[in-house]
Amino acid sequence: MDKTYNNKAWLLVLPVFFLVAISAIIPIMTVVNYSVQDTFGNNQFFWAGTEWFQDVLRSERFWDALGRNLFFSFIILSIEIPLGIAIALSMPKKGIWVPVCLVLMALPLLIPWNVVGTIWQIFGRADIGLLGHTLSSLGINYNYTNNIFDAWLTIIIMDVWHWTSLVVLLCYAGLVSIPEAYYQAARIDGASRWSVFRYIQLPKMRGVLIIAFLLRFMDSFMIYTEPFVLTGGGPGNSTTFMSIDLVKQAIGQFDLGPAAAMSLIYQLIVLLICYVFFTVMSNVDSDKPEQGAEH
Length: 295
Hints:
Layout lengths: L13 H22 L1 E3 L5 E3 L3 H8 L1 H31 L6 H10 L6 H11 L6 H8 L10 H29 L3 H9 L4 H29 L3 H6 L11 H11 L3 H39 L1
Antiparallel strand pairs: 1-2
Helix pairs in contact: 1-12, 2-12, 3-7, 3-9, 7-9, 9-12, 11-12
């Protein structure tokens, strides 16, 4: 019997497409328009072609900001992914403490980004902040506004405090989805704790780890609000990431052409790195069953 298909449900999706067009496509088209033109105000534009893209790629300012972004993302991922896995493994899987732990893990994620920056800005002050005052009383000269190392250390600790919970919750969801039969078989075989993690838990968490890595990379690579509120990009330009530099060019200097070109390059870099990582991890997953079959 032939099936009757009703495609009227697509009408419910049209508002979503409309909102996406307004919130994403139209702004991107505007940015593309600015990236190939120059303006002196009064809505007078002049064709510039790829001039702004060439200027951005030749600029030391761009490469310095890109290097700071990559370095920051590398440190954040190196800390938050292993730390999130370790915390998720130590959380209870049953009992009354499960909801308590989940709520505590979710609390940092509920705090707005600008509030996080403000909290740590006050927290690190030597006169009224708990961290700054404690370090000063111990004889440690801590000043995140004048010392580059202190500024970086504060931003890294702030991001770890704020976003490690996301990795924990994703890894915990992957752990609780593992059937108990796997652990029973491991106990019968006398598997060690490391073997259980290596051959049972880690492979089962691979999917959520890919999601965690992609989310944390994109967010750390595009970080803006927290370091801007905390240090303003200083001391000097030591914490001026690409997002902060982009805002300075677009709003502070009103260089719309270079800022638009830089934003497009910025977006392409994020998409390219995410695509490469996702492709590599997907290929690793697809190759594993075949390797297992050979053995």
